[in-house]
Every structure is written in C-alpha cells, then in structure tokens.
Amino acid sequence: MHHVRLPRIGTIAAWRSHARTLLGNGAAPEEVLWSVGEASADLFADDAPALPAPGATIRVPRSAVEAIETALCHRDGERFSHGYAALVGLHRRRLRWGDRSDSTIGRLLKLEKAVRRDIHKMHAFVRFREVGPVSPGRRAFAAWFEPDHHVVETAAPFFARRFGDMDWVIATPDLTAKFEGGNLSFEETRDRTPPPPDASEELWRTYFSSIFNPARLMVSAMTSEMPKKYWKNLPEADLIPGLIRAAPERARRMQEAMPSAPPSHVERMRFVRPAAESPDGDLSLQGMKPALDACRRCPLGQCATQAVAGEGPQDARLMIVGEQPGDTEDLAGRPFVGPAGKVLDQAMTDAGLDRDAVYLTNAVKHFKFEPRGKRRLHRRPDTGEVTACRWWLDFEVATVAPKLLVAMGSTAALALTGQGGSIEKRRGTIEHANSGQPVLLTWHPAYLLRIREPSVAAEARQRFVDDLARAKAIVGA
Amino acid sequence: MVKRTLNEKLAILADAAKYDASCASSGGKRRDSKDGKGLGSSGGSGICHAYAPDGRCISLLKILMTNFCIYDCAYCVNRVSSRIERARLSVDEIVHLTVEFYRRNYIEGLFLSSGIIRSPDDTMADMVRVVRTLRERENFRGYVHLKTIPDAAPELVEEAGKWADRLSINVELPTEQALGTLAPEKSALTIRRAMADVRALREAAREKTFRGRRASTFAPAGQSTQMIVGADQATDAEILSTSSRLYASYKMGRVYYSAFSPIPDSSRSLPLIRPPLMREHRLYQADWLMRFYEFDSGEIAPASGMLDLDIDPKLAWALTHREMFPVDVNRASRELLLRVPGFGTRSVQRILEARRHRSIRYEDLVRIGCVMRHARPFISLPGWSPGHLPDDENLRARFAPPPVQQSLF
C-alpha cells in the first residue's frame, strides 16, 4: 500500500509527479491511498518508502491529462484515486479516452465539467475593490470569493493575464492568490474579511439597475446562470429583489402611457437625407448610379448590396456587356473588379484593348444570388429580370452609342439581341441589337474560370482574346 | 440646466442602451497584459460577468455616448420626437467608466453606441476618439464593440475597425419597406453598403498567422447586426431569409433579434404592441439551425411563415417531415443526425466518434448527452425502437405545452 500525502498548494503538480512514479512502478489504483495535508510544496516526500524513478514513458493523450488534472480540483474526496484509476486504465489501453460509456471516464468527465463551470464562474464573479497601494506605481485591488471547488490555483493565472498592470489579491476560504509586482503566488488564507466597498461600486449598481429592461422579466434565466449562492459577494445582487418587484408595474405604466406629442423644436433638429436623383428627370451616365440603386423594377434590388452601373467614357466606340455583377462587384459597386474581371482585364490587354477606352457594363445591374452559409452562390438572372433591367441597358447603349457591342455570355446576348439560348454555336458571330448596332458574341470570362482541363481552358481563352482583338479591329480603336 | 453627475448621466445612457441585444465578447485577437504595461485581455470565449433579472447577461459596459438624436425612428426611445431625458458623456467620462469597471472585473469591455448628434460624421469621430483613447492612453486590451453609424464617412469606419474588436451596423428592420416607414431618415442602401465596406476592409486586412489561419487585423471579432422583431408585419420566414442573406453577403458573425419592447414615451406612428418574447427565442433557435445544423433559411419556417411558438423549430420540422424518420443512429450520415430533435452538434460529433469503435446503444446516447425525450420518436438503434411513434398523429401533443383555456374575464 502506498500512502501519498499531497500538499495543499501545488496539489496537482505533486499529484502528477507521484502518479508518474507510481504508474512507472506498476502500482494498481487500489494500492494507493491519497490525501491532502501539508500546507506547502516543500514537504514533498511522503511516508511510503521512496519508489525508483519510472522507467517506461507514459503514453496518455494530452487532452486526457488536461481533463484529469482539471477534475482533480473537485472537492470530491475520492478525486485523486479516480484520476489515478483513469490514468492507469488509459496507459494500459484498458480504457479509450472519450468513451463515455465507461464508468471511470464518465465519472471523471462529470467532475471535470463541474470544475470547469466553477472556474468560469470565478472568472465571472470575482469583484475587486480598490485598496491602498502595495508596490509603487501600481494600483492595488482585493477580492473575497467563495468557489465550490479547489480552483484558485487553476483559475488565478487568468487574472494575472488580464490585470497585468495592477496588484491584486483574491482570498477564498482555503487559499489566497496574490499578484504583486507581476508575480503570482499562493498562500493559505489568514484573513477572511472581505475588503470594504469602494466608490466605483455605486456607479456599477446604477449601471446594473439601468440596463435592466422591466418589460422582459425572466428571473429563471438569470438564476440559472447566476445562482443565488454567488449573490452575497456581488455588490449588485442586493438590488435584484427590488428590480423584480417593481418590474411589472413599470412595464404596465409604459404600456398604458399614451403616445406623446413631439416637442415643438423637433422639426428644426430633424435630419434630412438628400433625395436620390429621380430616374424620371434628366438622367445622365454619371448620375445613373443613385437612380439605379433605387430601382425596384425587379426584386433583385432589395437583396443585393447596391446596383453596379456601367463604367467608361461616354464616347466609347466599344461597349462590352457581361451578365451581372458578382460578389466582389456587389460589394465594391463597380463592374468587373472580381475574378472574372481579372480574366477580362488580362484578355483585353492581350488583345491590345485599353480598358479606359471601353464602356463596360452588365445586362443586369444587381447581383442575383442564393445565400449558402457564409457564401453567396451566383444565380443566373431569369428572362423577367433581364427584361426589367433592359431599360437601363438601352439607356446606356443609346447614350454611349458605340460602334460595336460585345455580348459576353448568353444573358448579355439575350438582353442585346432578344435571343437567349446557348452561346456555344453563336460565339464569334455578329448579330444585331434591337437598336440596330452590330453585336459580337463571345464567352463570358467567368466561363473560362470554370473550365477544369488546362489545355481546353487555354484554347478557350485564346478564342476569347481573338474575339476581343476582332472587336478592336472593327471599331478601329 | 443643472449639471448632471456622472451617476445620473450613466443611469440615463445605460437605460437608453438596453434595447441593443448584442452582448458577445468572444473571438477576436488574443491579447493580454502579462507584460505589466497595460490592462486587460481578450480573445477566446467571452465571460458574462452578471445577469440582470431580464435574463440577459451583462458582459460589456453597454452605453450610449449620447441619447440626443436627430433621427426619428418610430421604434426607438431616443428618437428626436421623444420627450425622454437627454444626456451626454464626454470621451474622458466613458474611458473612466470603462477602465474602472474593468479593473473591478465587472465587465469584459465596452459596447459603445450613440444617438446621432450634429452629423453622422461628428458622432462617429467622437466614438472613434473614445476607443483610441482607451487603446493609446490607457493601454486597454479588453474588448471593444463599436456600433457604427452607416452614414459616417468610410475613413471613420476604417479607423474604427483599427481600434475596435467588433463593428456592428444595425439593419434595424427585416424589410426595406418597413425601414422606409418606421425609420424614414435611414437608408437600407447605405446600411448595406456600410456592411459591405466592413467586409471588404476585413478581407483586405487579413494576415497569415503562424498557424496558417488568416486573421484580420481590422475588426478582428467581425461584424454583427440587429433586427427588431414585431414592430412591422414581416413574417418569421422573411426575417430568416433576410438573416441568411446578411450572413452570406457580409459574413456577419451574428444577427441579433430583438423583440420590439414597450418603451417609455412611445410614438404615435407605432403603438406599443408587445410581441411574445418566445418569438424572439424561436428565431434565435432557427438562426442556430441555419448556422450550425445545415438548414436552409427556406425550410425552417412552415408555409404560414410563422414559427411554432409552442415547440422548437427543429422539432416542428421533424414533425412535418416524418418520412425522414426514424433515423438509424448507427448508419445515418452526419447531415441526417443533425436533423434529429434532441441531438446537438456536439452530441452528433460524439456519436460519430463512438460509432467508429462499436455499435451505439440507447444507453450510450444518454451518456453522450442527447435529449432523449425529444429524440426517442425519431431514432432507432439497439436497445430502442420507436415502434408506431413516428406515425403517431398525436406526436406533437406530447411535446407542446397543454392548451390553456382562455380566461373568461
């Protein structure tokens, strides 16, 4: 039989070192008797005959060790033997970590969960009060807290990370954590008087009672997360009964009060948003964006961020029309700035076209998409939407009056020529727009991005460049 | 006017801020003050430091810089036409409150919002000054959430994102039409554009961390938004579809739903209706289903457009899709397991892990932490067969609270 006496401070580190030795020497769980006694870690040695250092390495998943050591903070008197039993089982592969149907592991996880909650509540409900300074240049604070389990040593480093520039003391019924001049230490609690209230507490109480909404009283939701056992050390908690009592009456009074007439000075103060340009007035290419933004000829405008108007000189000889803005264009409010836009830019460069000399636009001006989690999936606009948006495209075509139009993809073809359908057979041909201008049909650059086979993609891209070069030749740019 | 004390101003401005639902303080960049040169830590999961009797957690000092406002939003207690008491906190006062509360471990940080005074730019500039002072002068490393004013200049939003952990812009109402009626000075377009800007700025400021993850230095905890429920006629289906668009379009961390709450000094144009708080709760559950359970916004709400108030949306979905059940727990795919009422994401993960080693029995599910009362009719596995339960006409009645007879008086 091994009798291991663990110190009250540094308990877990001591348990770990003993457990390692015992395990290395093949001690069975029922052969070890654990107890916590001595105050400090220097009385490390136990009464049992010293065991030789362990030979074999101990292989247990790190997550298991972390969970066991957390569970050891529980106030359950059997915690050390439970922890050791789990360690032995895991080491000898009798147990599989994560197997909740095993009683040893199930029991341990239950302890661990209770401890984690207790640590969390300590992080939440410790309330510091300012006390006289201990070291020069650092403000000093003190708190009294009563955790359910032996969590002070495990919970305290959080406060050291958070309150690095001040000195603080957290006293609990058994241990006290001290942080002075940047050093964290623990000692047995001598003074059990909570520190006196400080001036800021009144502000906090004011805040607590003002942030509460009496129209939505839900006491059980509060007490399940902030159980009454914690209340006695919370400076705000004694306000709670009064707030609950007065709530129904306050809510009723709000509801019964008649709507009030606004004070007379309101009209002077009210904010007036500059009105968007009306699409019925004198519309220009430059002033088109606000009017487009307000367009609700089809439902797409409500779902997209904004409209994307065409871009380019009013006297452009070439006008290139795509399908619709994509995710990037929708965010930026500018056409062809996303991945497909990059393909187009490169192809234009290769074809010797200057982007600044071309008018670029889309058949549909709002992005049509389907939300899928955190992404937007592009959806092809339907005939109704294309028709609704034709009004704008016709306006752009009429105003710019280009010598040649390039329709990229079948949606643009539909909008310009009235003929939808596959672009496959029509690519490279010239059709005529409703307005009479010639329309050169080609692929949409997004299609090039979708081709998987590199050789096919390269060839398609070359044809696309050829089409653009041909457009350049036709307009003589 | 008599000069108000800090305590009085705090009371007014905390009171005015209580209608903001957001309280999250998790995520973002890991920071601490181990070096002894600053105050605070953040990153990881946030902590709720207190709970008010309305059941809401208090994690951040949630206040308005001022409740003066030149907008006239009918649902808002601070609208220009309301007769409530007005106050304004100075930059130093807000910094003082934040730091003193933080040092006493009352809060995780600051959630600053404001009424619009003078102009959107002036107001936003003051708010940015608060955060910059906290960060630069006080070396504050706690969490800061800034409610961004959509009409403010993009440069101000850019600076705000440099100092704050999270930015939020409220969409306010589920539809453009409702916004036009109830908040005539606000513009849905401007709101969406501001959200788009935040997303674009976040993506532009991504840095590769040593773990290969790409964290943004701009508003590291992301952006969120809030929608008022019950002030207009929008159905739950419309609300969820708006939310799913917000998540997809602007990579929202969260969409908060706030049941329209009676306010003191209501507006003539919006009588005080009191939507059931349960509606807000069901919307949050539905939102969870979209984000973590692979439900599509369109399939959660029933044809009526309104979620069932008596039972949770996942259970309601299962009851109308009986043909999918019972699910064989030992064989079903992850997607299908996630659809079983009473199975959470963590339970499903544990089931999948345990399944690799051996066949799962009924008792295992209990230990795994499944809510068996809900799951039982929808599953089959060794140790349990639902028998006729999946087809039981009265299945809904087993879960719904018993009907209450209408009061005669």
UniProtKB/TrEMBL annotation, chain A:
Q: Which residues form the Uracil-DNA glycosylase-like domain?
A: 309-469
Keywords of the record, alphabetical order, are:
4Fe-4S, DNA damage, DNA repair, Hydrolase, Iron, Iron-sulfur, Metal-binding
Q: Name one GO molecular function term.
A: deaminated base DNA N-glycosylase activity
What domain of life is recorded for the organism?
Bacteria
Q: What CDD domains does the annotation carry?
A: UDG-F4_TTUDGA_SPO1dp_like
What Gene3D superfamilies has UniProt attached to this entry? Uracil-DNA glycosylase-like domain
Report the record's Gene Ontology biological process terms.
DNA repair
Coiled-coil residue windows: none
Q: Which residues cross the membrane?
A: none
Similarity-based family: Belongs to the uracil-DNA glycosylase (UDG) superfamily. Type 4 (UDGa) family.
Give the protein's recorded name: Type-4 uracil-DNA glycosylase
Species for this entry: Zhengella mangrovi
TrEMBL record, chain B:
InterPro entries, sorted = Aldolase_TIM, DNA_rSAM_put, Elp3/MiaA/NifB-like_rSAM, Endo/Exo/Phosphatase_dom_1, rSAM, rSAM_sf, RuvA_2-like
Q: What is this protein called?
A: Putative DNA modification/repair radical SAM protein
Q: Which domain of life is it from?
A: Bacteria
Protein's UniProt keywords contain Iron: yes
Region Disordered, annotated ranges:
23-43
Query: What are the Elp3/MiaA/NifB-like radical SAM core domain coordinates in residue numbering?
Result: 59-286
Q: Which UniProt keywords apply?
A: Iron, Iron-sulfur, Metal-binding, S-adenosyl-L-methionine
- SUPFAM superfamilies xref list: Radical SAM enzymes (SSF102114), RuvA domain 2-like (SSF47781)
User: What is the required cofactor set for this protein?
Assistant: [4Fe-4S] cluster
Q: Which GO terms describe its molecular function?
A: catalytic activity; iron-sulfur cluster binding; metal ion binding
